[in-house]
Design goal:
single chain, 304 residues, alpha/beta, D-Maltodextrin-Binding Protein, domain 2, 2 domains, ten-stranded mixed beta sheet, 23% strand, globular
Length: 304
């Protein structure tokens, strides 16, 4: 009888051990790594089209990886980032000193990778024949002056990175109450400007180079303006060449910031963005790559 009980006990321990081993094995196989697993990525809405393309290629290359994109205004994205909704974010700025200290207190060192140089584009209605605009007029308008040819400025969101950029450039804490319009997306900005002359829209250039189906119909009714910087004499369009030469006045760098604290998809996706394939996607987007992708020329000798 004791032998039977002993055998049953051994068998029970073996079964439990097997189950635990299987669970550990399953847990290990489902564990997030730099090339597999699932994670959420917070993205500044002004650069959403670029990151959508990057994720599509990344997931097709590494089919065990799943990245869920959440596009928000810059302020909303940062709030979610600090609340641990996700520890990976794409922004048009680096973390501030106070934001960095929050993660240092959690024993996490933020990993910041520059992936592109973006341009903020100013657009107008096709009926407005003048395709030039001086930043001096934009700054004066943001300071409350009505003595400019600008009837109104149109932003995608009051919490947008473009609002922060333009108010900082003008040296004001907030936009004036009169003559400034804000919506919920870049798509709405393009639509509004295409239907209203005299308005100047402020959008990420990526939305113009890679328009959504909704935007395509409105692009024929807008002009992309050439801009003269403060204390400058020439006007420049938001082209990759002008970004590379540093002549376009409304340029900004784009970063992916990873605070996961471990080797997860944040690290893998950041490396992908900064790598050759990711930089080629940046080049296609209308932005300027941080590292210009190489070009290989194959010479074929037909005689041999």
């Amino acid at each position: 009888m004791k032998k039977i009980i002993l055998l049953l006990s051994v068998s029970f321990v073996f079964v439990i051990g097997s189950l635990v081993s299987c669970k550990q094995s399953d847990s290990q196989s489902n564990k997030e790594t730099i090339l597999k697993g699932k994670t959420t990525l917070l993205v500044d809405e002004t650069v959403k089209p670029l990151i959508e393309d990057q994720i599509a290629v990344f997931e097709s290359t590494y089919n065990k990886a799943k990245i869920v994109l959440e596009a928000k205004s810059e302020k909303e994205a940062m709030q979610a980032f600090l609340k641990d909704t996700s520890r990976i974010v794409v922004l048009s700025r680096e973390l501030s000193t106070d934001e960095t200290k929050i993660f240092e207190q959690l024993k996490i060192k933020p990993r910041t990778t520059k992936v592109a140089t973006d341009a903020i584009a100013l657009i107008s209605n096709k009926k407005d024949l003048d395709t030039l605009i001086a930043m001096q007029d934009v700054v004066a308008f943001l300071k409350g002056s009505m003595q400019t040819k600008i009837k109104g400025l149109v932003f995608d969101n009051p919490n947008s990175s473009t609002v922060r950029y333009m108010t900082a450039l003008a040296g004001v804490k907030e936009v004036p109450q009169n003559g400034v319009y804000s919506f919920k997306s870049n798509e709405e900005v393009v639509k509004f400007v295409s239907e209203n002359d005299g308005m100047i829209g402020v959008v990420g250039v990526n939305w113009l180079f890679q328009p959504t189906v909704k935007i395509k119909d409105y692009l024929t009714n807008i002009n992309v303006l050439s801009v003269k910087g403060l204390n400058k004499n020439s006007y420049f369009a938001p082209t990759q060449n002008n970004l590379a030469e540093g002549t376009y006045p409304l340029a900004r760098d784009l970063f992916i910031i990873n605070c996961q604290g471990y080797s997860g998809l944040g690290m893998g996706f950041a490396s992908f963005l900064a790598g050759e394939i990711g930089q080629r996607i940046v080049l296609k987007s209308g932005m300027l790559p941080t590292t210009m992708p190489g070009r290989k020329i194959l010479i074929i000798d037909k005689e041999n």
